[in-house]
Recover the amino acids of this structure.
């Protein structure tokens, strides 16, 4: 596992491709997971992850080390994911009564069948509001610290803790 300094030294010595290979090897799963937490679509998340690493390759010479390399890459991934979300067609409104009824029935069905296996847990997490879903995914499923989640999502640590608390309360209610 190469350090941030090691990656920077590779770039400065003209070995940007090798530096990118290290970054991809170390962060590809986490970048994909972050993109998936925004997009909920495997293909779209893979496209965003690929786009992220192209952007990282282009921007590696400008990496100044003020933040951790992983935090810098996660910020790029977050921004690319948000851009991909904006490109999607408009979503239906949750205030639509038909949509609300469908969500209620899905929630009831999920709560009835909920077992503590990974698929059931993922279905429950997907019912959370976007920000709560993201912090739960990063904190519990990708085992990031409060500080890392805050840096990745560009929010204060206190907000991350509040969102985790609210997500746990909401999950208790729907199970």
């Amino acid at each position: 596992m190469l350090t941030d300094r090691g990656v920077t030294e590779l770039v400065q010595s003209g070995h940007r491709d090798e530096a990118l290979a290290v970054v991809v090897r170390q962060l590809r799963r986490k970048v994909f997971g972050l993109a998936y937490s925004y997009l909920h679509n495997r293909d779209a998340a893979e496209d965003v992850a690929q786009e992220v690493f192209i952007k990282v390759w282009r921007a590696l010479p400008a990496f100044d080390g003020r933040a951790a390399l992983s935090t810098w890459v996660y910020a790029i991934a977050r921004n690319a994911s948000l851009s991909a979300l904006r490109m999607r067609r408009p979503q239906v409104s949750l205030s639509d009564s038909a949509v609300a009824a469908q969500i209620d029935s899905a929630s009831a069905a999920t709560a009835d069948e909920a077992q503590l296996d990974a698929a059931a847990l993922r279905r429950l997490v997907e019912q959370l509001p976007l920000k709560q879903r993201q912090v739960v995914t990063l904190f519990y499923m990708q085992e990031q610290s409060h500080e890392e989640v805050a840096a990745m999502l560009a929010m204060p640590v206190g907000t991350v803790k509040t969102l985790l608390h609210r997500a746990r309360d909401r999950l208790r209610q729907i199970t």
